[in-house]
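Lab meeting, item 3. Inverse folding demo.
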């Protein structure tokens, strides 16, 4: 059981780190043109020739993606704090932490899906590492939630 707890805490930390890196990374999408000009963009900045400028035209899908990704990060943080409290025996139930991890997965999935839906309208744009680790963070939150519930079941059976 101690091994499962260690894996659980490590997954939450990695997932939270991935979510933060995804939000701040300027590599959600990239575009390479015929004359080898390079363009990449994140949620906050668009960069061309390694010169980044803040995204001024506030698009609705970008607002939604930003909001849900930030809420997902906050939810990750709450789940982490709750898991620490449950291990220190201040909270007797792991269900709350698991529920927050599932909520994290939902928030991240909504933000990433809205972005995906909008970007898929253009065939020239390719997804990049910030976007990919956002989806990895989503998967980690689901795996962490299942581990949390497995720990809860194992704890209740003993």
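The presenter then showed the designed sequence:
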């Amino acid at each position: 059981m101690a091994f499962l707890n260690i894996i659980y805490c490590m997954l939450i930390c990695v997932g939270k780190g991935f979510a933060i890196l995804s939000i701040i990374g300027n590599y959600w999408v990239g575009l390479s043109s015929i004359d080898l000009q390079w363009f990449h963009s994140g949620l906050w900045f668009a960069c061309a020739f390694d010169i980044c400028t803040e995204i001024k035209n506030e698009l609705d899908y970008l607002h939604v993606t930003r909001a849900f990704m930030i809420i997902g990060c906050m939810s990750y943080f709450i789940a982490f704090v709750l898991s620490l409290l449950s291990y220190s025996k201040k909270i007797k139930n792991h269900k709350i932490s698991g529920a927050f991890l599932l909520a994290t997965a939902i928030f991240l999935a909504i933000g990433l899906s809205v972005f995906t839906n909008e970007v898929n309208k253009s065939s020239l744009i390719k997804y990049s590492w910030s976007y990919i680790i956002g989806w990895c963070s989503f998967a980690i939150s689901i795996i962490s939630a299942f581990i949390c519930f497995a720990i809860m079941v194992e704890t209740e059976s003993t």
